[in-house]
Write the structure tokens for this entry.
Amino acid sequence: MNSAMKIFTVFLLSAFVMCVSVSSTNIVFAGIATGVGIGQKAAPFMLLSVEGKKIALESFAKDKVTLLVFGTTWCPACRHEVPALKGYYNDLKDNGLMVLGIDVQESKKKVNSFIEKNRIDYPVVLDSNADVARLYQVVGIPLNIILDKNGVIRYKDNRPPSKEVLEKLLLN
């Protein structure tokens, strides 16, 4: 291979490696890729609670098993799982469980009314522009995501997890 061809080959390989590393949206955190899939460290976000308080996932879920629940007030399946979520939160919060409701694209007034009517006692934040829903690739609601104590996604499904799954993660 002549020297011009060698230089061209090195250039192409360098360009390819550069493109691959630049196009990646994941950040490496302590050896675990950050993203939205099972086994990845949960992608960070910050949203406002219905009370107007900023809630950042990193501080909210720090060293806690956290159940993120994407939903809306108009979704029948979302409304149906509220009693189970309240039960999980009330039964397991003293063991370190955090629950965070993430309402997608609804008004603060509507969400507040739903919270009061259903006596929801876990925090609820407003994803007014669906930015976090897009980040987490929410294609159907409700979407339940469990983060372990290290912030790694261990469960992601449209059905709520069983209480046993939460208890097992709390023991680890």
